[in-house]
Amino acid sequence: GRQIFQPLHTLRSAEKELLPGFHQFEWQPALKNVSSSWDVGIINGLSGWTASVDDVPADTIARRFRYDVALVSALKDLEEDIMEGLRQRGLDDSTCTSGFTVVVKESCDGMGDVSEKHGSGPAVPEKAVRFSFTIMSISVRADGEEDAVTIFQEQKPNSELSCRPLCLMFVDESDHETLTAILGPVVAERKAMLESRLILSVGGLLRSFRFFFRGTGFDEKMVREMEGLEASGSTYVCTLCDSTRAEASKNMVLHSITRSHTENLERYEIWRTNPFSESAEELRDRVKGVSAKPFMETQTTLD
């Protein structure tokens, strides 16, 4: 047969498309703050982190997928379910090329002590933390229709099988600085994806997806860590309001949700700068137990 010479990069690209887990996709508009290489596999957990002046370089081992690549892979795994969902709803798949909405549940928790009891491996911190996500539902609004129709719903949202690890790190979940350094870039990628649409081939046609993220898989310890609140021994017990232990024990009813991520940031600034030159006690009372910089807003909804 005729020999066709092709430049090496063309062959490389062709080769990549044959690899399992490789999917070509595009974001419109292109994602800000995210590396532009689309053939990424597992990356260093600290990549994407730009150290600021008061950060200490994090000395830890972390590995993660780029968030958008992991979501693409999860959607491609659900390709048959998506097509089946369209069929069951009587929707013509050739007209449903845009208007897809994906709801993602984020989860994060410590994995406890993972130290090697008697091995001779590398010295690593004894604790590990896993950040993962689950695709909860996919819906589509067909052209000209008012309401969106759900075409996929995860039947076992809390199962290990539907939960996909995004980032694994050797870190104690109460090490606020290291967590910030590792999950900061994940948050930046998530924020970028909220302002863009994913164009991906599903069932042989290019379709566009929007993503919504919900943080229902975080336990209270993790939420306190990410929002910069004092830990469990604090006088200020509530993750959502400013009540103290004493107040809460007297009054279980009149609770109002008063905290917001932005407000916590403002309080952290007050804690850091102490503009009124108060004593430590007065300062604590002013910021109601916010003592670190919050780095992740965990928007909860019912799971």
TrEMBL record:
<dbReference type="GO" id="GO:0030183">
    <property type="term" value="P:B cell differentiation"/>
</dbReference>
<dbReference type="GO" id="GO:0061630">
    <property type="term" value="F:ubiquitin protein ligase activity"/>
</dbReference>
<feature type="domain" description="V(D)J recombination-activating protein 1 DNA-binding">
    <location>
        <begin position="1"/>
        <end position="25"/>
    </location>
</feature>
<dbReference type="GO" id="GO:0005634">
    <property type="term" value="C:nucleus"/>
</dbReference>
<dbReference type="GO" id="GO:0043565">
    <property type="term" value="F:sequence-specific DNA binding"/>
</dbReference>
<dbReference type="InterPro" id="IPR058554">
    <property type="entry name" value="RAG1_RNase_H"/>
</dbReference>
<dbReference type="InterPro" id="IPR058555">
    <property type="entry name" value="RAG1_ZnC2"/>
</dbReference>
<dbReference type="Pfam" id="PF26101">
    <property type="entry name" value="RAG1_ZnC2"/>
</dbReference>
<dbReference type="GO" id="GO:0008270">
    <property type="term" value="F:zinc ion binding"/>
</dbReference>
<dbReference type="GO" id="GO:0097519">
    <property type="term" value="C:DNA recombinase complex"/>
</dbReference>
<dbReference type="InterPro" id="IPR024627">
    <property type="entry name" value="RAG1"/>
</dbReference>
<dbReference type="Pfam" id="PF26100">
    <property type="entry name" value="RAG1_RNase_H"/>
</dbReference>
<dbReference type="InterPro" id="IPR058552">
    <property type="entry name" value="RAG1_DNA-bd"/>
</dbReference>
<feature type="domain" description="V(D)J recombination-activating protein 1 pre-RNase H">
    <location>
        <begin position="26"/>
        <end position="98"/>
    </location>
</feature>
<protein>
    <submittedName>
        <fullName>Recombination activating protein 1</fullName>
    </submittedName>
</protein>
<dbReference type="GO" id="GO:1905347">
    <property type="term" value="C:endodeoxyribonuclease complex"/>
</dbReference>
<dbReference type="GO" id="GO:1990238">
    <property type="term" value="F:double-stranded DNA endonuclease activity"/>
</dbReference>
<feature type="domain" description="V(D)J recombination-activating protein 1 ZnC2">
    <location>
        <begin position="236"/>
        <end position="298"/>
    </location>
</feature>
<dbReference type="GO" id="GO:0002250">
    <property type="term" value="P:adaptive immune response"/>
</dbReference>
<dbReference type="GO" id="GO:0006325">
    <property type="term" value="P:chromatin organization"/>
</dbReference>
<dbReference type="InterPro" id="IPR058553">
    <property type="entry name" value="RAG1_pre-RNase_H"/>
</dbReference>
<feature type="domain" description="V(D)J recombination-activating protein 1 RNase H">
    <location>
        <begin position="102"/>
        <end position="234"/>
    </location>
</feature>
<dbReference type="Pfam" id="PF26024">
    <property type="entry name" value="RAG1_DNA-bd"/>
</dbReference>
<dbReference type="GO" id="GO:0042393">
    <property type="term" value="F:histone binding"/>
</dbReference>
<dbReference type="Pfam" id="PF26025">
    <property type="entry name" value="RAG1_pre-RNase_H"/>
</dbReference>
<dbReference type="GO" id="GO:0042803">
    <property type="term" value="F:protein homodimerization activity"/>
</dbReference>
<dbReference type="GO" id="GO:0033151">
    <property type="term" value="P:V(D)J recombination"/>
</dbReference>
<dbReference type="GO" id="GO:0033077">
    <property type="term" value="P:T cell differentiation in thymus"/>
</dbReference>
